Amino acid sequence: MQLRSLILYSKSGKTRELRFRLGELNIITGSSRTGKSIILDIVDFCLGRDDAPVSVGPITRTVEWVAVLLELPDTRAFVARRLPAKGRKSISTAMLEFGSALQALPYERLDNNCDSDELRQQLGLRIGLGDVRSEPQPGSLQAPFALHLGHAVPLCLQNQDEITTRSILFHRQGERDAGARLTSTLPYFLGAVGDDQAQKQHELTTARRILRRRQQELKVAETADGNIDARLHSLLAQARTAGLISAGEELGSREALLDALREAVRFPPPPSEANPSQAERTVALQDRRSQLRQQLEDISEQRRFLTRQEAEENSYSQVVQRGISRLYAVDLLPPGSGPLVDDATCPLCASRLPQPDSAIEDMLHTLSDLRGQLASVHTVRPRREQTLRELAEQADTVREELRGVEGALNSLAELEADRTRFRAQTEEQAFLRGRIDAHLSQLPGTGDSYEGSLLQLRASAAFAQATVDELEAELDTDAMQDRLDHALSYINTDMTAYAQELKLEHSERNVRLDVRKLTVLADTDDGITPLLRIGSGENWVGYHLVAHLALHRFFALNHRPVPRMLLLDQVTQPFYPSEVAKDSGNPDLIRSDADRNTVHGMFELMYRFTHDLAPDFQLIVSDHANLPDQWYQDCVRYNWRDGEALVPQSWIDEHPSS
Fold first, then answer.
1. Centroid of chain to Cα 495
2. Quick one: which H or E segment has residue 267?
């Protein structure tokens, strides 16, 4: 597969076609921002990529369709893709036409007739990619996948961000899963794995998965078989403890154990003993207990009041008695309890006083009051004592009834505790019956049927093992590795020769391709040095170039199903010191003679490379360089300077930016 032409279709129906020569070096040179780099992205998009790699600018404003006309081994293919609508980044529809004399179709005939998956499959079939499946590396989480053109395209493109980096070697290698897919597919593209071997490798991987599954099923069954009896005895002991099975002699056979456990599952649950009247009786007794406790509290409160009153009266009587005793002690009053005659008589000598003494009258009144109060206290005391005796009798009666009520409540509580224990035992039995039933339902069949199932699992595992052994015998992994090493030896020899011709750093001994890590390795005095540890952009570009040229030389000479073209973008960008130098493309503005020689050497290598493989290989380079050599100028297809660009200015004038 090579590129005959690239076509742009404007939104107004105009056409812009870039034609390329087959089997030669094609150079597009020009100033910055003229659309050179977008050519590689358009080819990538037209070969089946869903994400449209077109940045916002003149292309998105003016172009509606992009297309390529491809030269295939026995025919031509026209592929057209409509650019995604505004706000969208990807599209899966496409147009695909085949024809031996096919030319670029006019705008009016453009119409989607397939999707990107079918596009890749159809084009892949035309270059020799049959129904091939790729098997990921052992231990990879990636699923097997069918090879199509999309797996070969990353070997044919290098944009300006990729060719100058040391961390990746192939197009889109840094994207998710892209590196893993390249690692899985490279052995096939290098011829180490044939079409039938790839299919057998897929069958072997599937057979190994089936074998692991069968072995796991057999292991689980045999482990379960070894633990069945122990588990059954354990369940039987639990059933006896819970009262589901009566204690008896030990059961030896598995069938006897199973019969006993099935009997435990059928154990009838005890009848419910719910008694609503008992609950009502409990509530009534609790209410009566509360009433009696309240009565007892009321009686106690009355007794405390009367006792406190008696204590206060005794204290008062003592005070009154002391007052009367004091009057007697000073002999102010005659003996006896009778009153004095009058207050004009002297209490000391009984003579008549000239005038009545008021103090005598006051003492007489005080004594009279004290005697009256003391008599009142003595009158109340018998009634209070009678009341206290009655309250004590009531308290005894209430306490006796309270003891009876509490005894009845304790009896009811014991009955409820027994009922709770009974319910707990019932629930335990129900739970154990459920466990036993669940375990029995999960057991494999017993007897002949069970033995038959084990034999069937063993037979399935043995058959899966035999299938794996047969496929492994057909697939000689050592032979595949030998073929891969043989292919890499040719590639590594060419890489070393190209690197030495360009005088790349660390190329003195051996340069080789690492297909597992997808990088370049160089043998140095310090050991094996990967591209990641080699310095300077000039070396990174150089090693990208020699790796891809060596790969495509091998693909072409060994007729591998990879497009016979390589698109490179901005291979000289590390050598131009400024934008002015880049825009002019004049080699005289390159920094040093050594850099100018390197740039000249790279293009001369590419020119000789395509000439040696002509007409089986096409190389398309978009670059700033514009060397004066005649062979270089003969390879220039387009020189976009002084207003020339990929998108005509007239298209831009028709669709100005908003």
1. 44
2. none
